[in-house]
Structures are given as structure tokens and as C-alpha cells.
């Protein structure tokens, strides 16, 4: 087995037993990504110096016979909308192409305390808006399984990097499926935690009531290790909360009740995806799990609801990019004639890509006088109904099983000219963010060498239940 | 179909400049997305309260205190990011 294929626990044991040093381990990944990332383009910035100094520090600790945390010396890639102090953070946008982060995000601070090694910053759809990584201002990422296909998005760079063994794990952010869908497309594991479980301090905001940071890993066990390291209340994010503590949570798989929403099996699902989901249901049945059909009556309204709420919040969050305080822009300021408004119009008109502009426009429209009640307020009420659907469902079941994406990884260019068809790829993921509940995407099957993922969804703060159910599936 | 005037008006509110071509392309895309989100019209929400966050939020307060900013390293870092500064201030174009 190659070093770059190691899970967190395997790598930790190797470091402790001195089978290899942290520096050797880190260099194995740096060598690989330097050679192979030309064709995948998962990275926007490689932080080689930082990685090497972090690895050397861990080797010193090991040489001094000190106990090291499980994540010490483990390489990680970070989606380029999460801040690492002193490192460029672009959110894959021209408007931030020269922005250097002045502080660490809380999740980065926590991982640094553990001794994690940061290999670099990964590609995304600009400001995390998109489902294919094609909306990056710096060029798309390609799917390691098939270079003609997209890795999914928006955390496509992190998912592709983990799938290609450029890193042991990665961090992503999920506003409407941006961790789960690329993980499904790249055959890796991705968790969207309960809203508030992980601090958003230092995450470049897209839609603040929906955004969550989460792990992208090769196994369920790794996802659990990373989640445990980054979760927790943070005074820098007033929406963050402490998870209720459950010691030694163990689940009897035969006592588990899994719900399958009937509304998800209507139209628009690829037959290969449907087959994979049905196969997963059979596997759980064989383990003795009870499978129940459930109903989420407002499922079909989740997507239009999301595409009002998320752009509305985005239009407010992205108002701060004015070409004045987040790094130099490509515009020559002297060439802009007129007053301050002319400057804003030009900098923002040229600095944002088409999808970001579309969403700012949509949000501005939904929030503008005369439309607020009909669009934004209405969507907020529908959000209440979607939340109630899940609450009712979790009275009857522990876990909801659903496809992650309605389709297999699609070809580059296939959907980029039709924004609405791109939005439809988020159909099974957005409702989870609207409800604020956790969900994991795990690899379930392959079709013509392309991975297919399934989602396991639980009630708020029941990540443990998700991990146990996912572990049982992974072992089967 | 959303009118061209509406697109231009919303763009101005959003502080975005579009070229003539972009405006036209956008008009079409914007219309089809709006048609799609109009699906929400049929949902009965009578008596339903709106949700702004998935969980109840409480205000968290802390003491308000001053940090001497002129000697603070962070303020230098922040100012270094600005395209133009003068005497420790951000410099912008005239408002009028």
C-alpha cells in the first residue's frame, strides 16, 4: 500500500511506530500532487513551506518521545474559502485574487493545535456557488475517475484531492450540498454537520443561515475523527453551539429504523442512481435494519425555496466586496473615471463571474421593495414547512436514506450554459441545509467506473447515529 | 419575461455593471429562474411563521473594550490589503 493511500489511523500508527517520519509522509503527498495535479487542477495554492515546517515540528515532538494527537502530522487540504493566516484566500474569485488572510479560521486554529499539516488551498466554484467547480475564476477541476467529467461542487477541489490521494483528508463547506455532492461524484466520504456544530468564523460567507464547514475523507472513521476535532462552540461565531455529549455512543444496527422518502423516487433520477440506492436499502435490510417508507410532503419545494433564500443572503454578504479593502484588484484605479459608485459598478462588474452575478441579482430582486413578501418571506415560510416535514419523519425513523445526487458525474461543459439544469443537481441536498440537520454522503456503488453516493440524514446533533449507520454500511 | 428596465434597475441596486450583451443574456436566464421559483406560489402557508435560522438564536454579549489600533499589527495587515491608503486611512474616490 502506498503511503498516500493511508487513512488517519494507519498514518498515525506509522508515525508513532516510526515506520516513516512526518516529513517523509508529507513529502510523499507533495511529490504526488506536484506530478499529477496538472491534469486535475484541485489546487489553487500549494503551501509547501508551511507543510514542511509543520511536519518537522511533529518529527521533533516524536523525537522527544512526546505523545502526539491522532491528527498530528496528517496532511490536509483546505477549500479556498476558509482562511489560513498569511495564506492567499481567493474563494476562486477575481475580486479576491490578491487577498491574504489576516487570521486563522477557528477550524484551522483547532487543527493547527492538533498538529495537522496543511498542503494547500483547493479549487471551488466562485464563492461556493455552483455544483461542478466550473464556476472557478481560475479554471475548472477535473474528476480523478474520468478527466472529461466534473468533480462536482462547490468543494470539488478538496473532494478531487482526497480521491486522487493528494491528501489524507480535506475541509469543505456545504451551503446546499457543496460537500456531499462532490464527495458522491469523487467516491469519498463527506459530512455536512448540524448547523452550528462547527464554527463558521473564518469561512467566507455565502448564505449565513445555511453554511457549514465539514470534513472530506476516505473513510467514515476519518470523518468522525476530523469532525470531533473541529466541532464546538466558539465565541467568534454566535450561531455555534456545543454538541450534547454522549459517551461511548453505540448503536445496535438491528434496532435502527431507516426511512426512505417516497417523494424522492419520482422523476429526474438517473436509473443507475436509483439502482444503487435500492441496493443500499437491501444491504441495510440484510443487516436487520427496519426500512420504512416515509413522506416529506414539501420535498419538491425545497429547491425553489433554497434558490430564493441562498441568493438573498448572498446578495447581502457579497456587498462587502467593493474593491477597497480585500486586496488589490486588476483594475487600474486611475483609469476609472467618475465617482465612488462608478468605481463600485466597474470593480464588481468585472470582479465577479457570471454565476455570482446571477445570484446577487436574484437575491437583490427577491429582497427589493414590492417583491420581498412574495419571494423572500414566502420562502422563509416554506422553509418552516420543510423543517416540520423532517421533524415529523424523525418521530418514526432514526435515519433517512436518500441519493446524494440525481445523476452520475456529468461532462465538463454539459450544464454550464443552462443555470437551471445545474441548480437541479442539488435537488436532494438543499433541504438538509434549510432544515439545519446533519447528513453524510458515502460511496455506495460504481457504474461504468463512476462513483455513486448515498446520503444518510439524521435529526439535529445526531452525527453519532449517522457515523454508526455509515460505519455498518462501509463494513458490509 | 422580466423587462430590460427591471434588469438594469436591479443591477444598479446590486452595484453591478453589465455590458449590453450581458444584460440581454441575463434577461433570459433571470426569467427562467424566476419562473422556476414561482413554483412556491401554490404552497399554502397560511398561519405559518417564517424561519430565518434553523435553530433559535440568542444574543451573546461581551464587554466592549478598546485596542490601541495604531500600534496593532493587525491594523497594518488590514491596511496593507487596500489598493490605496493615506495617513492610515483607506482612500476612496469622491462620493459625488
Helix percent band of chain A:
25-40%
Q: Helix proportion of residues of chain B, in percent? A: 25-40%
Tell me, what's the shape of chain A? globular
Total count of strands of chain A = 11
Number of helices of chain A: 15
Structural class of chain A: alpha/beta
Quick one: CATH class of the domain at 4-41 in chain B?
Answer: Mainly Alpha
User: What is the chain-wise order of helices and strands of chain B?
Assistant: HHHEE
Q: What name does CATH use for the topology of the largest domain in chain A?
A: Amidase signature (AS) enzymes
* Total DSSP E strands of chain B: 2
- H/E topology pattern of chain A: HHEHEHEHEHEEHEHEHHHHEHHEEH
What is the strand and helix layout of this fold?
The complex is a heterodimer of chains A (476) and B (96).
Chain A: H1 8-16, H2 22-40, E1 43-46, H3 48-63, E2 75-79, H4 106-114, E3 117-122, H5 156-163, E4 169-174, H6 180-186, E5 189-192, E6 212-217, H7 220-230, E7 257-261, H8 271-286, E8 290-294, H9 302-317, H10 340-351, H11 354-367, H12 373-396, E9 399-403, H13 419-423, H14 430-435, E10 439-447, E11 450-457, H15 463-475
Parallel strand pairs in A: 2-3, 2-4, 7-8, 7-9
Antiparallel strand pairs in A: 1-3, 4-6, 5-6, 5-10, 9-11, 10-11
Helix pairs in contact in A: 2-3, 5-6, 7-15, 9-11, 9-12
Chain B: H1 4-13, H2 20-37, H3 73-80, E1 85-86, E2 89-90
GO molecular function, one term (chain A): transferase activity
GO biological process, one term (chain A): translation
Keywords (chain A): ATP-binding, Ligase, Nucleotide-binding, Protein biosynthesis, Transferase
3D architecture notes:
- The complex is a heterodimer of chains A (476) and B (96).
- Chain A folds into 3 domains: 3-230, Amidase signature (AS) domain (Amidase signature (AS) enzymes), CATH 3.90.1300; 253-302 and 375-459; 304-372, no CATH class.
- In chain A, 39% of the residues lie in helices and 13% in strands.
- Chain A has 15 helices and 11 strands.
- An 11-stranded mixed sheet of chain A has the order 1-3-2-4-6-5-10-11-9-7-8.
- In chain A, strand 7 (257-261), helix 8 (271-286) and strand 8 form a beta-alpha-beta unit.
- In chain A, helix 9 crosses helix 12.
- Chain A is globular and about 65 Å long.
- The mean pLDDT of chain A is 95.
- Chain B has 96 residues and is mainly alpha-helical.
- Chain B has a domain at 4-41: Histone, subunit A.
- In chain B, strands 1-2 form a two-stranded antiparallel ribbon.
- In chain B, 12% of the residues are buried.
- The chains are: A alpha/beta (476), B mainly alpha (96).
- Chains A and B meet through helix 9, helix 10, helix 11, helix 12 and helix 13 of A and helix 1, helix 2 and helix 3 of B.
Amino acid at each position: 500500500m502506498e503511503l498516500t493511500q493511508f487513512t488517519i489511523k494507519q498514518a498515525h500508527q506509522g508515525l508513532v511506530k516510526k515506520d516513516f517520519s512526518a516529513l517523509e509522509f508529507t513529502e510523499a503527498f507533495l511529490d504526488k500532487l506536484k506530478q499529477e495535479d496538472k491534469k486535475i487542477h484541485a489546487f489553487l495554492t500549494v503551501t509547501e513551506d508551511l507543510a514542511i515546517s509543520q511536519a518537522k515540528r511533529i518529527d521533533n515532538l516524536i523525537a522527544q518521545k512526546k505523545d502526539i494527537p491522532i491528527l498530528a502530522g496528517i496532511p490536509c487540504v483546505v477549500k479556498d474559502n476558509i482562511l489560513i493566516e498569511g495564506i492567499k484566500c481567493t474563494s476562486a474569485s477575481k475580486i479576491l485574487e490578491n487577498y491574504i488572510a489576516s487570521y486563522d479560521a477557528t477550524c484551522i486554529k483547532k487543527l493547527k493545535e492538533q498538529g495537522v499539516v496543511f498542503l494547500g488551498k483547493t479549487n471551488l466554484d466562485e464563492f461556493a456557488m455552483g455544483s461542478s467547480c466550473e464556476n472557478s475564476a481560475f479554471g475548472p477541476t477535473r474528476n480523478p475517475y474520468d478527466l472529461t467529467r466534473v468533480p462536482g461542487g462547490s468543494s470539488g477541489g478538496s473532494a478531487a484531492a482526497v480521491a486522487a490521494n493528494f491528501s489524507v483528508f480535506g475541509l469543505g463547506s456545504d451551503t446546499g450540498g457543496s460537500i456531499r455532492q462532490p464527495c458522491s461524484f469523487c467516491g469519498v466520504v463527506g459530512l455536512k454537520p448540524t448547523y452550528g456544530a462547527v464554527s463558521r468564523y473564518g469561512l467566507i460567507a455565502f448564505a449565513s443561515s445555511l453554511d457549514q464547514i465539514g470534513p472530506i475523507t476516505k473513510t467514515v472513521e476519518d470523518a468522525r475523527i476530523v469532525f470531533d476535532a473541529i466541532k464546538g462552540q466558539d465565541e467568534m461565531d454566535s450561531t455555534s453551539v456545543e454538541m450534547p455529549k454522549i459517551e461511548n455512543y453505540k448503536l445496535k444496527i438491528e434496532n435502527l429504523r431507516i426511512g426512505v422518502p417516497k417523494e424522492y423516487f419520482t422523476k429526474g433520477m438517473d436509473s443507475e442512481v436509483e439502482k444503487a440506492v435500492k441496493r443500499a436499502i437491501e444491504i441495510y435490510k440484510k443487516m436487520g435494519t427496519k426500512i420504512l417508507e416515509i413522506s416529506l410532503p414539501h420535498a419538491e419545494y425545497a429547491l425553489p425555496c433554497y434558490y430564493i433564500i441562498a441568493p438573498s443572503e448572498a446578495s447581502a454578504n457579497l456587498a462587502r466586496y467593493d474593491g477597497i479593502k480585500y486586496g488589490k484588484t486588476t483594475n487600474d484605479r486611475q483609469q476609472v473615471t467618475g465617482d465612488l459608485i462608478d468605481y463600485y459598478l466597474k470593480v464588481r462588474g468585472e470582479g465577479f463571474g457570471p454565476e455570482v452575478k446571477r445570484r446577487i441579482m436574484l437575491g437583490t430582486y427577491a429582497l427589493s421593495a414590492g417583491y420581498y413578501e412574495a419571494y423572500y418571506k414566502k420562502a422563509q415560510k416554506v422553509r418552516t414547512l420543510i423543517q416540520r416535514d423532517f421533524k415529523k419523519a424523525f418521530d418514526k425513523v432514526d435515519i433517512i436514506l436518500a441519493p446524494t445526487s440525481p445523476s452520475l458525474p456529468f461532462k465538463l461543459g454539459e450544464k454550464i450554459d443552462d443555470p437551471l439544469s445545474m441548480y437541479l443537481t442539488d435537488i436532494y441536498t438543499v433541504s438538509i441545509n434549510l432544515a439545519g440537520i446533519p447528513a453524510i454522503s458515502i460511496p455506495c456503488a460504481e457504474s461504468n467506473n463512476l462513483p455513486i453516493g448515498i446520503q444518510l440524514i439524521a435529526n439535529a446533533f445526531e452525527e453519532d447515529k449517522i457515523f454508526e449507520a455509515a460505519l455498518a454500511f462501509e463494513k458490509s | 419575461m422580466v423587462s430590460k428596465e427591471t434588469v438594469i434597475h436591479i443591477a444598479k441596486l446590486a452595484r453591478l455593471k453589465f455590458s449590453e450583451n450581458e444584460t440581454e443574456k441575463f434577461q433570459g436566464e433571470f426569467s427562467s429562474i424566476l419562473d422556476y421559483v414561482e413554483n412556491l406560489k401554490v404552497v399554502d402557508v397560511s398561519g405559518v411563521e417564517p424561519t430565518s435560522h434553523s435553530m433559535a438564536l440568542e444574543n451573546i454579549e461581551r464587554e466592549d473594550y478598546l485596542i490601541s489600533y495604531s500600534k496593532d499589527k493587525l491594523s497594518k495587515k488590514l491596511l496593507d490589503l487596500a489598493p490605496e491608503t493615506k495617513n492610515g486611512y483607506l482612500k476612496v474616490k469622491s462620493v459625488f
